[in-house]
Design goal:
heterodimer, A: six-stranded mixed β-sheet, six-stranded mixed β-sheet, 9 helices, 32% strand, B: 13 helices, elongated
Amino acid sequence: MSNLAIEVARLGKEYHIGGPQKSYHRLTDQLADVVAAPFRRAGKLLRGQANGATELNEKIWAIKDISFQIKTGEVVGIIGRNGAGKSTLLKILSGITDPSEGYADLYGRVGSLLEVGTGFHPELTGRDNIFLYGAILGMKKAEIERKLDEIVAFAEVDKFLDTPVKHYSSGMYVRLAFSVAAHLEPEILLVDEVLAVGDMSFQRKCLGKMDDVAQEGRTVVFVSHNMGLLQQLCERGIFLQRGTVHTDGTIAEAVDAYLQTLEQTKTLDLSERTDRKGLGKVRLIGVDVTNGSSAILRTGHPVRFIFQVDMLVPGLACNFNVYDTIGQPVTSFQSRVRGPEDASDPENGLKFICELDELLLLPGRYRVDVAIIGDNRLQDFIEAATVFEVAEGAVRGRPVQPDGKFSVSMSHRWTLPTDR
Amino acid sequence: MKDNALTIPSNLPRTRREASKGWAWPKFRELWEYRELLFFFVWRDIKVRYKQTVLGAAWAIIQPFFTMVIFSLFFGRLAQVPSDGLPYPIFSYAALVPWTFFATALTQASNSLVLSSNMVKKIYFPRLTLPIATVLAGVVDFVLAFVVLMGMMLFYGLTPTINVLWLPLFLLLALVTSLGVSLWLSAMNVQFRDVHYTIPFLTQAWLFVTPIAYPSSLLSEPWRTLYGLNPMAGVVEGFRWALLGTDTAPGPMTLVSAVVALILFVGGAFYFRHMEQNFADVL
């Protein structure tokens, strides 16, 4: 017999198109809108984009008709692509925004870590910020005082406790913020992608802390893109697609379903993809992974990644991350980090070309997430912009076999003992 | 997956997230539960207010003091504006002290939600704490300016009468007015950034429709009572009466001011509550 921790029933959230995207409103905009709206509607009717009163309301459902129950002590991972409604769901659960329909009941104190350190004030010292951030997260002063030593020790910032955090390195900043948050002891903890920060050893420490939280019988809801992490931490997974529950089962089932649909979308034309993030001034319009001559990529052979964008802006850069079939990150490429062999070729036009002399990935399927940066802002981000397959090959003449567990091979040589 | 045996825990409080319809009660109880956070916000605002400034907290005095100097020169000397029989500098400064508190509160608080948009979008905490803390943090500036006022009274040889016991009430009136206006403006500013551009004009206009550079005794009844519709008129004349013993004892005008301030505050709280459900979506 278990206790109910969270009950979500027919939950839906409707956004006015232009509402969430437009960062601010002006009265004049609204007035202009009042004048323009009838004409726009008429135009839409003429072009056949709308036919009834309901469609004239330009609204979208970020999530719709979501229902599930979570029992006390369960650790649940929420997965899904950008725009699938994960963050909206978490925002509703944490109370940041109200749903448009349905309800969510939460039993016990709720703590949410949606972005670590947003409450920090740069001018205040580490100590001051612990109290401030703790209070924002809903801790009582006495509680923070009691845990102060623990928080400081966990964050490893004791020497800088009385330094303004604006002088902290980003690592220290994040460690301190996470440490405060980790010492919040709610019955229900909502976590959004916070572990994607900090160095490896601290990440491991955070994971340990998260595990402890779960062991203590508290309920945790995780949102992450890191499938490996989720599989490590969660028992149950809920996969959201286009605002509804696609799969609700064990974490392995949910991740499988997610990865399958990810690959399916690859067949979609990039221009038809709407699950993007970023400002959108520059868009990625094409991705190609080739082996120069043949279409088959082989371990140890050269490979070219070609990314086509639709516009040139200052500071344009392309980053792409490669993931394996279970969603574990494998490697990442960044055009902004320059090497002596990098060049600009006016002949290429609006193309980023990334050339590898030898592809050091083991045979298997890999997914590529692409980010385009320009004007110092994220312009476009597409998950699974492409998926490619690597066939068996050889690295410097050494045959490479597929391996279920590993995904990278390295060129190397052995010196063997001789038996005289 | 669905385990029907799940029981609703009886020992834990239930929080329900659902669509709020129409006009709801302001979340004052929640604000009380988060009073420590309110305290921390006030403390933060005070601590960082004059960071990276050369003159620091002196700014709290410079603003009303130099306004007083300018008013004394141009309105007092040049235009010979009457000052209820008092030296013009102290007459205007006694009004500028509560006025500066109000004007600063309104300017800073109207921006409080927008400036903390990151937090509002990422963490849940009672949103009321932001504008209220900003207003309360201004009390420190008020106290500093007030000390100067006492110095000036000493200088002019003015001793406060027994009326001074009423001063806290006028301070409360100033506070309620500031909070009321701040709640309206901060919530409005989230939706309409026009507010941001209106504030300088609004404070300037309000300064001149408040009896700061001139006495309200220029008006005869019933206009004087009507003047109380500007709650700051009640505050300013109340301050003068309590401290300097002017002939502006609390009367119908003060009453009107108090009622208007209360309406502003309650209306502001309801408006804020009505708007706050969208803050995270709009910011």
